[in-house]
Amino acid sequence: MITSLYRRILLLIGRGRIATISDYGPVQKMQVKFLNLETHDNLPRLAEFGFSSNPPSGSDAVVAFLGGDRSNGVVVATGHQPSRPTGLLPGESMLYSQDGKHVYMTAAGGIVVEAKNQAVVVNDALSVTINSGTTITLNAPTSIIANTPLLKVSGDIIDNFSSNGHTMAQMRSIYNGHTHPVNGIQTGLSNINTNPPAQTE
Q1: Domains plus CATH for the chain?
Q2: Is 104 exposed, middle or buried (0-12, 13-18, 19+ CB in 10 A)?
């Protein structure tokens, strides 16, 4: 009996490599190979609520066999060594994919989203709000497109801000009050400047 119990304890946990994955249905199922001598099909995988992934073929898998019964296993952990980010500091975490995209929550540098030159899309949002304590910077090498029937800005707008010191409201005020000198008009009762524009906006 002691020998049987000892064997069951030894068989409680196994470490293998993932061969295939079925990511359909309510439970993800995996085929896991152990030392090329033992293969288990349709092992259910348990993952934390709110997080889902499909590990690449060849990923490590830790399997718990209930009661040491090798016919009743559950995958409780997975890892893919080639794509695992390294060098994280204590307290940091990262959500990552095999091709290098990641959301990196750093210890001192905020949150970094790396898209690897791929699109970032937010779908079907009722509203999107960004609250910043100081400045929001958008860097786009070609253009920024806003497909909207109305663009509202509560404050001033400055274009070419590195060389232009006037807001659009200030430029509109200057334009509304500007006049033009008229050459060739004799002095007397004649005006030598045009009146300000009749339509100011």
Answers
A1: 2-81 (2.40.50.230), 85-125 (no CATH), 150-201 (no CATH)
A2: middle
